[in-house]
Design brief:
This protein is α/β, with parallel strands linked by helices. The chain has ten helices and ten strands. Helices cover 29% and strands 16% of the residues. Bound molecules: iron/sulfur cluster (SF4) and magnesium ion.
Length: 295
């Protein structure tokens, strides 16, 4: 079945800005960007209605390759910015994109607190299991004993198991998908964007230049759609078990979702029963007299 290129009077071309892509041939970022555009179009969001936040990394170059309000931030810091923007304007859909390097090293603290805070944003993890932009160094998610450019004998540290880590934080939305399956990514991204709280989406991303151990072909062979095979995402322990058991096959789709947990903004007592949003309450203040005190 084909994917509609035009829905709600919008087209994926509305998100195109004409900037030439510089990713390597076969990079999974192409597919992830295509799925992000399709998910937004199918949900009826025009580029001027969404905020797209990018971390530093190969994926971050997407910030000048698709339209939308866009921020390209500091390494590991995409989640604080995305969360703050969402709290300032809760009516605006926010997608944050980050790599495995930044998200599980420099920014791992922000990932922890974003999950436990239930900020109502969508986080797309570009998980190619290495620092691609800086030419293939091992990240915290690189497989154990895997030779990489700066660690030819493998890394001495233990590899973080991302799903065990995320599930230990009592998440409300956990999904996994992979960069070669645009229809599945589109479905998962749409569900994440419609989720009540913080949505964590692990996208296993092909990086043919530096990741030779989970290639596109490896992902094609190992990934399967757990929802299509009957997995219902309403049980945390069942979702965790499925997510963590990757010995033979890799379960993809929506692995766990709980819509009953209030998100951060709903729990914020000072905002209870307030009809306006913080951005609507910003007032222009003349500080010129104040400034004269300092000249
Ligand atoms: Fe993509 Fe890897 Fe090339 Fe970066 S290094 S553009 S992640 S294939
Ligand atoms: Mg990476």
């Amino acid at each position: 079945m084909g994917i509609p290129l035009e829905t709600n009077g919008l087209s994926v071309n509305d998100y195109s800005c004409g900037t030439e892509c510089t990713w390597c041939d076969g990079c999974g970022d192409y597919g992830i960007m295509a799925a992000a555009k399709r998910a937004l179009v199918e949900l009826g969001f025009a580029p001027h209605e969404v905020l797209l936040c990018f971390d530093i990394g190969c994926h971050g170059n997407m910030s000048d390759k698709m339209l939308g309000y866009r921020v390209h931030g500091l390494h590991g810091r995409v989640l604080p910015f995305a969360s703050g923007a969402k709290l300032a304007n809760p009516n605006m859909p926010v997608m944050a994109f980050g790599g495995d390097g930044a998200s599980f090293s420099e920014g791992v603290n922000h990932l922890v607190h974003s999950v436990r805070s239930h900020y109502p944003i969508t986080f797309i993890l570009h998980n190619n299991a290495n620092f691609g932009l800086t030419t293939g160094q091992a990240s915290a998610l690189t497989w154990q004993n895997q030779p990489m450019n700066t660690s030819p004998n493998g890394i001495p540290e233990d590899t973080i198991r991302p799903m065990e880590f995320i599930f230990s934080l009592q998440p409300t939305f956990v999904a996994r998908t992979w960069s070669g399956d645009i229809p599945q990514m589109t479905r998962v991204f749409k569900a994440a964007l419609q989720h009540r709280g913080f949505a964590f989406v692990d996208v296993l991303q092909a990086c043919p230049t530096y990741n030779k151990f989970t290639s596109h072909e490896w992902l094609l062979e190992h990934c399967y759609d757990a929802n299509a095979e009957g997995h219902s995402p309403d049980n945390l322990e069942a979702g965790k078990k499925l997510a963590c058991d990757t010995a033979e096959k890799v379960a993809c789709g929506i692995l766990y979702q709980n819509e009953d947990i209030p998100h951060f903004y709903e729990r914020l007592q000072p905002r209870q029963n307030v009809k306006t949003t913080p951005v609507e309450e910003v007032a222009i203040t003349d500080v010129s007299d104040l400034m004269k005190e300092f000249v």
